[in-house]
Amino acid sequence: MIDLTRAARRTADLIAAVPDERLDAPTPCEKTSLAQLVVHVDGLSQAFTWAAHKDPAMNADAAPSLESAELEPGWRERVPERLAALAEAWRDPAAWEGMTRAGGVDLPGEVAGLVALNEVVVHGWDIARALDRPYDVTREEAEACLAFVAETPEDPEPGNGLFGPPVPVPAEAPILDRLIGRTGRDPFWTP
User: Fold this and answer.
1) I need a labelling partner for 66 at 20 to 30 A (CA). Which of 25, 35, 54, 102 fits?
2) How far apart are CA 169 and CA 178, in angstroms?
3) Exposed/middle/buried for 118, CB within 10 Å: 0-12, 13-18, 19+?
4) What is the DSSP letter of 23?
5) Interval 32-74: pLDDT, tens
6) What is the C-alpha separation between 138 and 176, in angstroms, rounded?
7) Cα dihedral across residues 173, 175, 181, 185: positive or negative
8) Is 110 exposed, middle or buried (0-12, 13-18, 19+ CB in 10 A)?
9) Which pLDDT score is estimated for 156?
10) Nearest 10 degrees: CA dihedral of 170, 174, 178, 181?
11) pTM of the model
12) First CA to last CA across the chain, in angstroms?
C-alpha cells in the first residue's frame, strides 16, 4: 500500500496553475496538448477512485481518453478535488485487496493502485515539463512506479501498449529519469 496523497497534491497544484494561454501547448506525452492531458487526468482520477471503492454502480468501463481537449467549466477546482478524492480512496487498505475494475479492465486492487500512482506521477511530470516547471517525486513513489512499469511488457506493435517505446536512459541516471524513459518519454524533453 502506497500513499498517493503527495503525488495527487503535486499534480493538482500544477493543474490549478495552468494558464489559459498554455492549454494548447505540447506535452512530452506524444501528440497530446496540455488541455488533453488535463482532461485525461480528470477522467483517470474519477476512474481510479471508483476502482478503489469497488462500487459496481459506478462506471468502471470507460477508459480515460487522451482525445478530448474540451475542459468543462470549473476544471481548475474540480480536477484537484478529484485528485484529492483519488488519494483518499486509496488510503483505505481494502482498496488494495481483491479484484476491481478500471477502464473496462478487471485487475487486482494492488495493481490498480499502482496504475493510479503511476498515472498521477508520470502525467504530473508531463504537465510540469509542458509548463517548464520543476518536478520532484519521493523515492518511494519513483521506486513503486519504476517497479510497476518494469513489469509491463513492451508491446511489439507501437501504439498498442500502455506506453510508447522506451527511451534509453543510463542505468546510473536518477530514478525519475529512468521511470520517464521507460514510459516512452525523453527525460530531457523541453517545450
Assistant:
1) 54
2) 6
3) buried
4) T
5) 899 999 999 999 999 999 999 997 666 555 555 555 568 888 9
6) 9
7) negative
8) middle
9) 45
10) -90
11) 0.90
12) 35
Q: Which three cell numbers stand for residue 50?
A: 471508483
List, as own/partner pairs, every contact residues 176-179 make where C-beta atoms lie below 8 angstroms and the sequence separation is at least 24, other chains included. 176/125, 176/135, 176/136, 176/137, 176/142, 178/146, 179/121, 179/122, 179/142, 179/145, 179/146, 179/149
User: In a 10 Å sphere around its CB, with 0-12 CB exposed, 13-18 middle and 19+ buried, how is residue 171 labelled?
Assistant: exposed
Grid cell at residue 28 = 512530452
Report the alpha-carbon distance of residue 95 to residue 99 in Å, rounded: 9
Grid cell digits, residue 188: 530531457
Q: Cell numbers of 25, please? A: 501547448
Helix (H) or strand (E) holding 39: helix 34-53
